[in-house]
Write a structure and sequence with these properties.
The protein is an alpha+beta fold. The protein is built from two helices and four strands. The chain has a four-stranded antiparallel β-sheet, covered by helices on one side. The longest helix has 17 residues, at 16-32.
Length: 97
Amino acid sequence: MNKYELALVLNGRLEEDAKAAALEKVQGYITRFHGTVTNVDEWGKKRFAYDIQKMKEGFYYFIKFESEDAACPNELEASLRIYEPVVRYLIVTDEAQ
């Protein structure tokens, strides 16, 4: 079982229900591509060091997930790239066990 961590930044202008729906959809992507979400760490709304797409802040999440399918991170990245509320993302292998 491979372990991964997704650092996710959502649009800071999202309303509470839209933010929850976007997070739910990202978790749905993980399960669709044969992954299992193990932990979601919400860091809240943070100010960017510089403007990104004319935005000054965003909602930060760190999602840990597992998958036996090595293609899961690639499929997830392809979906996140075109998903509108996502400002930035980074998927890394979680080496700490």
